[in-house]
Amino acid sequence: MNRRMILNTVLLGIFLFLFGFKLFPHPWHQIAGVLVLFPVLLHIINNRRWFTALKRGRWDKKRRLWTAANLALLSGVFLTVFTGLLCSNYVTASYGSTLPYNAHLVSGIHKLLTKILLLLIAIHVLLHRKAFSSWIRHGFRG
Ligand code: HEM
Ligand code: HEM
User: Fold this and answer.
1) Is it the case that residue 134 has pLDDT exceeding 80?
2) Could you tell me the distance, in angstroms and rounded to a whole number, from the CA of residue 75 to the centre of ligand 2?
3) Which of 61, 86, 73, 64 minimizes the C-alpha distance to 123?
4) With CB atoms 3.0 to 4.6 Å apart as the test, which of 53, 61, 107, 123 could cross-link to 87 if both were Cys?
5) Backbone angles phi, psi at 85, to 5 degrees
6) What separation in Å is there between the alpha carbon of 115 and the centre of ligand 2?
7) How many Å separate Cα 47 from the centre of its chain?
8) Residue 69: closest CA among 120, 23, 107, 105
C-alpha cells in the first residue's frame, strides 16, 4: 500500500472541499481549514529530503521556478489558514468591534489568497501528474 499517495489524495480531497466553500456549511469549512495543516505537515515531512537538498546542486532556471512555486505554496497555505482564523465567524461573533484589526479587510485578503493558492495547487498537482496517473493505473499499490 502506497501511504504517500493515500496522503496526497486526502490532501487533494480536503483542498477541493475547502475551495467548494459555498457548497458546505461554514463551520465545516473553518474546521477543515485548520485540520488541513496536519496532512500538509505530514506531506512536508514525507518530502523533507527536498528541503535538505536545497543546499545542494546547481540552480538552473527550471529549478529556481519550481522551488519558488513550492515555497510560495508553503507560505500560501499558512497565510490562508491564518487570515481565515482572523476573519472566522467564531472570532467576529465573540469579539466583534473590539477586534484590533478590520475583519472585513482580512476576509478580503483571505479570499484573494485562496485564489492564488488554487492556482499554485493546480500547478503543483499538474507538475506531479505522473504520480497520479500511476496511482490511477495501479491503485494504492502503485
Ligand atoms: C499545500 C501545500 C503543499 C506543499 C507545501 C507541498 C510541498 C511539496 C514539496 C516540497 C514536494 C517535494 C518537491 C517536489 O517534488 O516538488 C512535494 C511533492 C509532491 N506533492 Fe506536494 N505540496 C503541497 C500540496 C500538495 C497537494 C494538495 C498534493 C496532491 C494533490 C500534492 C502532491 C504532491 C506529490 C504527488 C508530490 C511528489 C512526492 C510525493 O508523492 O510525496 N502536494 N510537495
Ligand atoms: C488552506 C485553507 C483554506 C482554504 C483553501 C480556504 C478557502 C476559502 C475559499 C475558496 C473561500 C471563498 C472565497 C470567496 O468567496 O471568494 C473561503 C472563505 C472563507 N473562509 Fe476559508 N479557506 C481556508 C481556511 C480557512 C480557515 C482556517 C478559516 C477559519 C477558521 C476560514 C474561514 C473562512 C471564512 C470566514 C470565509 C468567508 C469569507 C467571507 O465571505 O467574508 N478559512 N475560504
Assistant:
1) no
2) 16
3) 73
4) 107
5) -65, -45
6) 10
7) 15
8) 120
Euclidean distance between CA atoms 86 and 103, whole angstroms: 7
End-to-end CA distance of the chain: 8
96 has a pLDDT exceeding 80: no
The average pLDDT across 131-137 equals 77
User: What average pLDDT does the segment 64-71 reach?
Assistant: 96
In angstroms, what is the span from residue 69 Cα to ligand 2's centroid? 21
Provide the number of structural domains found in the chain. Answer: 1
Residue listed under C-alpha cell 490532501: 11
* Torsion-angle region of 96 (φ positive above 0: left; ψ -120 to 50: alpha; else: beta): left
Q: Which atom of ligand 2 is nearest to the CA of 31?
A: 30
- Produce one character per residue of 48-73: b if its CB has 16 or more CB atoms within 10 Å, e if not: eeeeeeeeeeeeeeeeeeeeeebebb
Q: Interhelix angle for 3-19 vs 37-46, to 10°?
A: 140
Find the domain containing 115 and state its range. 3-55+63-141
Contact (Cβ atoms closer than 8 angstroms) between residue 37 and residue 55: no
How much is the pLDDT for 142? 47
